[in-house]
Design a protein that fits this description.
Layout (H helix, E strand, L loop, with lengths): L1 E7 L9 E2 L5 H10 L11 H5 L3 H19 L8 H15 L30 H17 L6 E9 L2 E11 L5 E10 L4 E7 L11 E6 L4 E5 L2 E2 L6 E3 L2 E6 L2 E6 L8 E6 L6 E6 L4 E5 L4 E6 L6 E6 L6 E6 L3 E6 L8 E4 L4 E6 L6 E6 L3 E6 L15 E4 L7 E4 L6 E5 L5 E5 L6 E6 L6 E6 L6 E6 L5 E4 L4 H7 L11
């Protein structure tokens, strides 16, 4: 399943991502001694183990070390060490490498046909040209051009959690091509992501993804490194301490104590990240310093979502399972904020990028509500009426995305497996297009900032989809004037 999607702005990725350095032999031995890689089970009695001769012990140790390295990179199966050693031994026996140079009677090893041809250089050998072409194609696939769109999806499959970095290539003919550039194995089931460009490793800008999961920590990964096995930064989480010979986990200072359900990066204050958690808290992090600056406890239930205002970057929204949305203004920290009560648990919320006054919230009952903060009342007991209330879906409306180019165009996705496009003009929503993207229950959708009418979709089936919404006649008719000038028509 795909639980979260994020677009990477064009030009933010390095053209040729670096390959992570493999751990040294000493580091691997330390990892083995610490038990970090110890996933094998007992595979025999003590008597059987003692019967193993010295040669087998040495061979098993070398194989175990090699498997441990591969396992650290997420590339081994879960077979037991003994079984893997037997498979390896059987394979070598089958190849009969001890007698590889002995000729069999009646078999001529060296032909007298075309294979005897000699070519003065590799460039003239037709059998080598295909290999060169394959190498050039592989290099081309691994190169990220300024025109490529990059999508990162957080997914879990067969109990393995990872990030997939996809390349989306559009062409002048209207055709598109998508493929996975590389992936990153992560430690826990991902729930939310936020892209950020804070230069955590020097330079003016970076290319990082913050990941919230079922764990209380937030991992930040460098998307410009392939085969990375450790996050660049970890915010919060637990640390093990020994007390009276026993290991005990303790939360780091400022950490969440529950799953991280929502993340929002502040594009103006680029070192600032907001997080929402099942521990009922909202936290503000300084990712450059790696610490929590502010903890807020204004909700009575799990906090599902957070969002910064595009136009006033000090203003933060949070939505909770306690059926409320709260707005806090960092410029007046002493103020209790403004609160809106809603009819069901909050699933997602989003600020309108075209005005600083409006936001929408989607709910567990399938409804979507819009609000104008200018009508908010300072008396928290007073009820602020929504600008509109829309029964958008038959099941939970899990995700929302405003179109960054076309005012009043909103996309919604739901557990009912549908994605819908709405025209919110005059606070009178009307559905202009809908689609079942065959993604299963839809958990995450996102419009591209660079090609605004491309909508990325992810859901329970684990299939990443991209919908060119301008291909819908109703969308093109109402919002086609916001098409980018250099964008090809489809």
């Amino acid at each position: 399943m795909i639980s979260a999607i994020a677009w990477v702005p064009k030009g933010a990725s390095k053209p040729e991502p670096a390959v992570a350095e493999l751990p040294s032999k000493d580091e691997i031995e330390d990892m083995i001694k610490s038990g970090a890689l110890d996933t094998s089970e007992d595979n025999g009695t003590e008597d059987e183990d003692e019967d193993m001769d010295a040669g087998e012990e040495k061979q098993t140790g070398e194989v175990a070390q090699a498997l441990a390295v591969a396992d650290a990179l997420g590339k081994t199966s879960k077979n037991k060490t003994g079984t893997q050693l037997e498979d390896l031994t059987d394979g070598l026996k089958e190849l009969d490498m001890e007698h590889y140079d002995e000729e069999d009677d009646g078999i001529e090893l060296f032909s007298k046909g075309l294979g005897d041809l000699y070519y003065p250089s590799n460039d003239m050998d037709p059998y080598l040209k295909d290999k060169d072409d394959d190498d050039s194609e592989e290099i081309e696939d691994m190169t990220i051009t300024p025109g490529d769109s990059v999508i990162v999806c957080a997914r879990n499959e067969d109990d393995v959690s990872h990030l997939e970095v996809w390349i989306y290539e559009a062409s002048d003919e209207g055709d598109s091509n998508m493929y996975v550039h590389h992936d990153i194995i992560i430690s826990a089931f991902p729930l939310c992501t936020a892209w950020l460009d804070c230069p955590l490793r020097g330079g003016e800008k970076g290319n990082f993804l913050a990941v919230g999961s079922m764990e209380p920590s937030i991992e930040i990964w460098d998307l410009d490194i392939i085969d990375e096995v450790q996050p660049c930064v970890v915010l919060g989480g637990t640390v093990e301490k020994k007390k009276k010979g026993k290991k005990k986990s303790k939360f780091k200072e400022g950490s969440h104590t529950g799953a991280v359900l929502g993340l929002a990066w502040n594009k103006e204050y680029r070192n600032i990240l907001a997080s929402a958690s099942a521990d009922k808290q909202v936290k503000i992090w300084d990712v450059a310093a790696g610490k929590c600056n502010i903890t807020m406890e204004h909700h009575e239930g799990k906090v599902q979502a957070v969002a910064w205002n595009y136009h006033v970057p000090q203003v933060l929204l949070s939505g909770s399972f306690d059926r409320s949305v709260v707005m806090k203004d960092g410029r007046v920290p002493s103020h209790s904020g403004f609160k809106w009560s809603v009819t069901a648990e909050v699933e997602c919320l989003a600020w309108d990028p075209h005005t600083e006054y409006s936001f929408v919230v989607s709910l567990e009952d399938g409804t979507v509500r819009g609000y104008d903060i200018r009508t908010a009342k300072s008396d928290l007991s007073s009820e602020s009426k929504p600008s509109f209330a829309l029964h958008a879906h038959d099941k939970a409306a899990c995700t929302l995305s405003y179109n960054p180019a076309a005012p009043n165009l909103l996309a919604t996705g739901s557990m009912d497996k549908m994605v819908k496009l709405w025209d919110l003009s005059n606070n009178q929503p009307s559905c202009v297009a809908s689609r079942n993207p065959k993604a299963g229950a839809v958990f995450s959708i996102s419009f591209s900032q660079d090609i605004p009418f491309l909508l990325a979709i992810g859901g329970s089936k684990g299939k990443l989809g991209v919908w060119d919404t301008l291909s819908e006649a109703a969308v093109s008719g109402k919002f086609g004037k916001y098409r980018q000038p250099n964008r090809p028509k489809t």
